[in-house]
Write a structure and sequence with these properties.
The complex is a heterodimer.
Chain A (H helix, E strand, L loop, with lengths): L3 H4 L3 H9 L5 H19 L2 E4 L1 H16 L11 E5 L26 H8 L3 E6 L19 E2 L2 E5 L5 H8 L5 E6 L5 H6 L3 E4 L19 E6 L2 H11 L29 E5 L9 H16 L3 E5 L7 H24 L5 H12 L2 H21 L5 E5 L12 E4 L2 E4 H5 L4 H6 L3 E8 L5 E8 L4 H12 L12
Parallel strand pairs in A: 2-3, 2-6, 9-10, 9-11
Antiparallel strand pairs in A: 1-3, 4-5, 6-8, 7-8, 7-14, 11-15, 12-13, 14-15
Chain B lengths: L15 H7 L5 H10 L7 H8 L9 H12 L20
Classes of the chains: A alpha/beta, B mainly alpha.
Chain lengths: ~475, ~90
């Protein structure tokens, strides 16, 4: 198997070809590894490539299929994981020199789930150091670039996950999302990115950044693929205190079903402000498309967003400082400048700030949940801007000048606070040749309906993206 | 002599503007003292400078964040307890 067409196939298409014996899992893994070898120096997606164990896993998947034991569509499917997610025997560096020698002793919950289904891990993906930052820049391992324009960033913090999928190195990748770190880079790179309900995917075996807001997320090329992967890794983990003991739905079952009667919430404020005009127009087109499909658009009021970023930071930095304290003492000089400054901020916040932020979190959740009494999903742009240029520190978008990292995650952060599931799906190509994304937010644990709406958007050719020219 | 009975003023939550105006502007020396006297950790001048005037494009300057935190702490959240995890589906579903 070779060639760009195969590189950009979906998980479902690859699964069909594997089932039809068009190629073996080993051939697929070899082709993926060859592509990583050829392109990783450009895109900086991978930190660690585990070629030997990948080929061994692929051979096991082939043997399993030969004896008729391959029941999962993920059997033989390559994937890769953000380098915060533990894989036994492989380094988890978190994109930092601090953990350069940190070899994981066991698999993260989600890795166990994937391997049990015969999926083939190709390695660990680049990120903003310790997931601290929306730009995904990494001076140690190199900054992942955007597949549609390599002078621009992939975006972060799961920058390697986005670049790996967008450059056709893997059909699916895992990331983490504390303020938008899966959805934002997915949107900037023309991918589907899912952040499920808080607690839906166990975070056991995932290096923490902020326990209160950390979510595992999924990046794929299609909504159907996201449903497949979510099905594999969602579920209760009694060893993760934050894991939700709520039954897992069939995420693929409703995809393609009509949306007649659906109530789509459109925020009256904040989400359509200070946004690139073409992204606004694309989102408007998505809303009209949903309306033509039988959905009713309902103007909604979400809680005021004025303090949302302050609440988020006030939770993030003390929690990060608490986790990093032993490393700061031992090897503090190995941290990047920006992350150390963030940890210093965590040192200066008062206990009152932290407690009040956690109380505000409870209020946000209650208020947002109340909105879902009148609507089934909420639709917003995923990001207010297209991928910024490499090295940009500040950016002005429709009259608002802000730090690039803040701009990238401006529309995503709140749903980490509220804990509601959200997915980004492409909604067309900007005139500058870069992808745009629209965000669909669902009720708690209603990922199935949320994905159904995303699939409806994806099914419209008007929002489809060409593969990047690499 | 009868003690002068003073009427206790009714607490009036100040507007967010007033809150910010009553708080003095954060100075670097405050952070230097705070980080030295409340913890054995050491932060560099550059790191504390970043808190006063953010230049790296990642965090909001602490100076600006403090103003927002002052508003946050002045918000009456009643008996709302700190958030825990999410453990159930939305009732409306």
């Amino acid at each position: 198997m070779s060639g760009p067409d195969a590189a950009f196939l979906s998980v479902a298409a690859l699964a069909a070809k594997l089932a039809g014996r068009e190629f073996s899992a080993r051939e697929l893994a070899e082709a993926s590894l060859a592509r990583i070898d050829r392109l990783n120096h450009r895109c900086k997606a991978f930190i660690t490539v585990t070629a030997e164990s990948a080929l061994a896993a692929a051979e096991r998947a082939d043997r399993s299929r030969a004896r008729g034991a391959a029941t999962s569509p993920l059997n033989g499917i390559p994937f890769a994981s953000k380098d915060l997610i533990d894989i036994a025997g492989v380094k988890t560096t978190a994109g930092s020199r601090v953990l350069a020698d940190n070899v994981a002793g066991s698999n993260a919950f989600l890795i166990d789930r994937m391997l049990a289904r015969g999926a083939v891990s190709l390695g660990k993906l680049n990120l903003h150091e310790f997931a601290y930052g929306g730009t995904g820049e990494n001076p140690i391992f190199g900054t992942p670039v955007n597949a549609y324009d390599t002078t621009r960033i992939a975006g972060g913090s799961s920058s390697g996950s986005a670049a790996a999928c967008a450059f056709g190195l893997v059909p699916a990748a895992f990331g983490t999302d504390t303020g938008g770190s899966v959805r934002a880079p997915a949107a900037l790179n023309g991918l589907v990115g899912v952040k499920p309900t808080l607690g839906r995917i166990s975070i056991r075996g995932v290096l923490p950044y902020c326990w209160s807001l950390d979510h595992v997320g999924i990046m794929t090329r299609t909504v159907g693929d996201a449903a497949l992967l979510l099905q594999a890794v969602a579920g209760f983990d009694p060893l993760d205190p934050a894991s939700a003991d709520v039954p897992v739905d069939d995420y693929a079952a409703g995809l393609g079903e009509p949306l007649a009667g659906l109530r789509v919430g459109v925020p009256a404020r904040f989400y359509f402000e200070h946004c690139d005009a073409e992204i606004l127009a694309a989102c408007e087109a998505v809303l009209r498309r949903l309306e033509r499909g039988g959905a009713a658009l309902v103007t909604i009021d979400l809680p005021p967003m004025t303090l949302a970023r302050a609440v988020s930071l006030t939770l993030q930095m003390p929690e990060a400082l608490s986790f990093h304290a032993p490393y700061l003492a031992d090897r503090g000089s190995l941290y990047g400048r920006d992350f150390r400054a963030g940890l210093a901020l965590g040192q200066c916040l008062l206990a009152e700030h932290y407690v009040q932020a956690r109380r505000m979190l409870a209020q946000y959740r209650r208020q947002t949940d109340a909105v879902f009494e009148t609507v089934d999903v909420i639709v917003t742009p995923t990001t207010p801007l297209i991928a910024p240029e490499l090295g940009a520190v500040r950016v002005a978008t429709a009259g608002l000048d802000e730090a690039v990292g803040n701009a990238i995650t401006r529309y995503t952060t709140f749903f980490n606070l509220s804990g509601h599931p959200a997915v980004t799906v492409p909604c067309g190509l900007h005139s500058r040749g870069l992808p745009m994304g629209v965000q669909v937010v669902g009720r708690y644990f209603a990922e199935a309906l949320m994905l159904r709406v995303a699939a409806e958007i994806e099914a419209d050719d008007a929002f489809a993206l060409p593969a990047p020219s690499l | 002599m009868n003690p002068v009975k003073r009427r206790r003023p009714r607490p009036v939550p100040p507007s967010s503007d007033k809150m910010v105006k009553t708080m003095e502007r954060l100075e670097k020396r405050t952070l230097v003292l705070l980080t030295r006297q409340l913890s054995s950790r050491r932060w560099t001048d550059a790191e504390l400078d970043e808190l006063v005037e953010a230049k790296l494009g990642i965090i909001t300057a602490f100076r600006d964040l403090l103003a927002e935190l002052d508003v946050l702490c002045g918000t009456d959240l009643g008996t709302t307890a700190p958030a825990q995890g999410v453990q159930k589906r939305t009732a409306a579903e």
